[in-house]
Amino acid sequence: MRKTFTTISLTIGILASFAQNNNSKLQKKTNNFTLENQISKIEESEPVKRKCGTPALNSSYEEAFQAMMQKNEQFANGKKSAVVYNIPIIFHIIHTGQAVGTSATVPTRNLNAAFINSQIAALNADYRKLNTDFTTYVTQSTFIANSSDIQINFCAAKVSPTGATLAEPGIDRVLASSKSLTGTTWSMSYIESNVKPATSWDPTKYYNVFVLEFGGADAGTLGYAQFPTVTSSGTPTIGDLAGFGGAANTDGVALDWHYTGLNNDGTYNKGRTLTHETGHWLGLYHIWGDDGSACSGSDNVADTPNQGGENYTCPSTNGAVVTDACSSTSPGVNYQNYMDYSDDKCMVMFTAGQKARMQAVMASCARRTSLNTSTVCTIPNSIDENNSNVEMSLFPNPTNGELNITIDLLNAQDFTISVINTLGQTVKEVKQTQSNGGTIKIDLSSNSAGVYFVTLKSKTISKTKRIILQ
Q: Whose C-alpha in 16, 22, 154, 437 is 20 to 30 A from the C-alpha of 7?
């Protein structure tokens, strides 16, 4: 791929101009939404085309990024193996007074927990290469070989910045008027200046996703992300210098509520708008390099083919080779990549090169590396833990399925061991009667890879530890 860069001095206004042209925007009214209005608008409007507001690349930022990757040496010459990182996520659902939706299939602006849970599950499937649609759309041997498990997990935050347990894991419901936010739909400039700063949580502990509705000049935008702030040896932090990185209180992704989670939109219905925007948030560019069809731009990833512009819909229904002027021979363009503009159903993979960038971000970038040690996905003990009365160790951790839990209690008592996933669901449970502990074996091989929490509870003690299932 050619390595041509474009230097951009970026302001919020210019940022908005980088949204891809959308000749068939979904026309949205600015009044409060009802289910009937939503269905009517979908039926009467032309199909919406994917529109991402995340800005194009910048040479100064990319130079610092490459220096960071070299310094990190996470992937250079295979000296280090990839790390499984964990990211706590919080969805700020910003509504204008609508009741929480009750349907499991049709979204309303104040999305119910089912949509948020489905979105987290989709992120984990996509970033761990567990999505079942991969083999349907990726048939080229080159892309199969280059496809990669990013080894990043997402867990629903369970506690607020004040330490209070969230009634709905991963969800912060925000009435717009309570934060002095006016209107019902917002431009990107208003979101940056008002919405995000009013609703953001500490980005060193939470991945902030702002679920709202775009309006004005930005109506039809599906989402946009803030790039990670990059620091490299001898190079100052790249932040507001060119619109990349940026302030802590605007960090995260803004996401239109229509395209959040598994919904009934026939085009963007698998939660992959957030998969795409999270890629930007972790340092990825659009796969075609944002150069139109010139074949001169680059996403700075060696194993993604040069591509003459974005792809819409699904160029092939069965993963067949699709070529263009920039990649005229097999395997063709990688329209199956999450960083293209294809429909959700055929957007199914990341490459090893993209993994290298995202893993380097998690290892070195401000407000990214600290997320892996954040404890907000763990519910604080409701009973003070008495370390002199209980010891609990887990091994191996990470595990491929078999988990040994060694417990040593000072006094024999009834207790329960629970294994809980990031959605707060108990997947395994073992009860012991009048026991001092010992080693308990639990088989997790039938469960999906990801982060889990092992909790020991009795009448007098409570203890939780985190494990990773590979």
A: 22
**Looking at 46, 277, 385, 391, which residue is catalytic?**
277
Domain identity same for 237 and 309: yes
CA distance 123 to 70: 28
Q: Could you tell me which residues come within 8 angstroms of residue 166 by beta carbon, excluding any fewer than 6 positions away?
A: 157, 158, 159, 160, 172
What is residue 327's three-state secondary structure? coil
Q: Do 10 and 58 meet the contact criterion of CB atoms below 8 Å apart?
A: yes
- Provide the residue type at 295 as one letter: C
| Counted domains in the chain | 2
Is 356 found in the same domain as 234? Answer: yes
Q: What Cα–Cα distance (Å) separates residue 346 from each residue in 100, 342, 343, 435? A: 31, 7, 6, 52
- Same-domain pairing of 312 and 394: no
pLDDT in tens, 236-278: 443 333 335 678 999 999 999 999 999 877 899 999 999 999 9
- pLDDT tens, position by position, 350-361: 999 999 999 999
> Is omega for the bond preceding 228 within 30 degrees of 0, making it cis?
no
CA separation, residue 282 to residues 57, 244, 420 (Å): 14, 12, 27
The H-or-E segment that residue 12 falls in is helix 12-17
- Asked whether residue 356 falls in the same domain as residue 402, the answer is no
Q: Are residues 216 and 153 in the same domain?
A: yes
DSSP string, 282-319: TTPPPTTTTSTT-S----S-TTS---SS---S-S-SS-
CA distance 108 to 97: 11
Tens digits of residue pLDDT in 267-315: 999 999 999 999 999 999 999 988 777 788 889 999 999 998 899 999 9
Q: How far is CA 137 from CA 46, 140, 322, 354, 428, in A?
A: 26, 9, 12, 19, 34
Residue 383 lies in a domain: no
Domain that holds residue 61: 12-373
Known catalytic residue at 277: yes
- 5 within some domain: no
SS3 26: coil
